[in-house]
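Example complex used in Figure S2.
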Amino acid sequence: MKIALIDGSPKTGKSCSSFLLKALEPHIAAGNATTRFRVSTQPLTDEEYRELCRMDTLVLAFPLYVDAVPSHLFRMLVTLENYLKTEVNRKKEIFVYTIVNNGFFEGEQNHIAIDIVKNWCVRCGLHFGQGMGQGAGEMVGSLKKVPLGRGPLKNTGRALQEIAENILSRRSAPPLFVRPNFPRFVWCFMGTHFGWNMRARKNGLTKKDLLKHPSETNRH
Amino acid sequence: MKTLLIHDLSPVDFASLGLGPSDDITVISDNGTIRHCIGCFGCWIKTPGTCVLQDGYQTMGHLLSEYDDLVIVSRCVYGSYSPFVRNVLDRSISYVLPYFVTINGETHHAKRYEHDISLAVHFYGDDITDAERATARALVKANSINLHCSVRTVCFHETPHELGEALR
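Predicted assembly (388 residues):
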């Protein structure tokens, strides 16, 4: 089976989408040919679009942007629809699985983006397999040293295992929504103090600066 | 009432709406220069309130705070806004803060501005499916929670011509 792993994060460095695809790959690689595609702010080439049409399975991983699919990836999906409708060598039975991560704690907030991918599949004549919504994506993407299925990644590991089994058996299943195994108030505290405030300090800004309106900033 | 209108119509279709120039309406349209959000969070932690990509759309977050009404006109694509309108919204996240608040038991971003927007969304397209309509309605509702605004209306139109009647 030919499986495309499509990383839809626009980030140039580490990302949760990349982390989750990397974690999924060993579960689906045996006996299959997996190919990585990177959809960043640079568009795919004509040959890459044609290659996607010849896949048996597409796995789309991306971050949630304003409750939906980030615009750079969304443009790619619109273009891919045209290729899928015109490419003579396209596979007839293509299954699509999607892994969406958001910055909020609740993975459930990814449900609309999953529905958008599902609607895209209908337009393209693809089979929608399953969606996974991962909460606290910023934190999860930074836990590279934590074994999958353990500690805060316990639920993530289980969900990836389930989606992998469905990919291998070409099954459709209801969405999986994942919250990290971590208290929400601790996540919120750490995100504020060790996330935003610390990053601001590296840019020479204080918490007070982050709260300002641009018009106030310009006066200084 | 000051209105901010974000649309994805071609210049010809926009002209056919018959919306004359007005001091109360600011129009955001596709001039071909918009860049995609690169996920750097610079608009939150480097230049708070302003995007670091200088392409003419970098002040979208602040612009939202200056209007009472936000009107979005977009082709309905898979139950979402079109890529251009999605792009504008992606570039508007500095309207809120990176910090979190809890609303209805869910985490969302806190307000940067003590300001309320009334949101009207007009989707168009001649073959929008029921599933796409349901997704689009859910999307607008979720946006209204995350952008701390109220939804005045969500409408679906078959053609841009119908839009003109609804907007005038």
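Residues 3-167 of chain B form a domain with the Rossmann fold fold (CATH 3.40.50.360). Chain B has one domain: 3-167.
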